[in-house]
Amino acid sequence: MPSKGWSIRPHKTPVIASRYDIEECGNMSPPQFPECLVTITATLDIDAIKELNYPVTMRGVKSNVEKINIVLTSETVQKDQTTTNYPATQISESNDDQQKVILTISDLVDVLEVLKDGSFQNFEWFDLGLYLGLTYFTLQTIEADYLRDAKRCLLECLAKWLTGDTKATWNKLAVAVDKMGETSVADIIRQRYL
């Protein structure tokens, strides 16, 4: 599968959608559709291929379709030759603005680092997930998928939060760990990001 100019990084391998995952989403209230996180980055230079096909295997689903393809396309933008590059200007955000910054999956490493710096224990991932608003059933699924791997469970829990919560903020994370009694982690978050 040609992928020149594209970087593909599945968060879980193999990338498979199973019948169990699809049926489970219907039993939840409200329904949570199954997902398999894949980070895809395009360099968008002239040599990059214009279309990326990424197959996802289907298992246990009653259908003639064995694979579905995710197709991404890009348009190459050529730089204007007369553009002048100026040095970046540092902009300081107010405390109120920083509290409103929405976190996404691209902030996962920063979130993991701040938890590690505050000596957050990986085995507390389930409680953290609950305080962040993840459902009990979602956390049970993570636990079943990664038995006896608390570090991976924490990673998946945070990834689920960052991809599912459209209002994920540093403040929300600080409040969650504070409620758990992890005041040192909450203090570090507030010092760095709030």
Automatic annotation (TrEMBL):
Domain of life (superkingdom): Eukaryota
GO BP term (any one): signal transduction
InterPro entries associated with the record: DEATH-like_dom_sf, Death_dom
Record's protein name: Death domain-containing protein
Pfam families in the cross-refs: Death
Ranges where the Death domain occurs: 124-193
SUPFAM superfamilies: DEATH domain (SSF47986)
UniProt source species: Amphimedon queenslandica (Sponge)
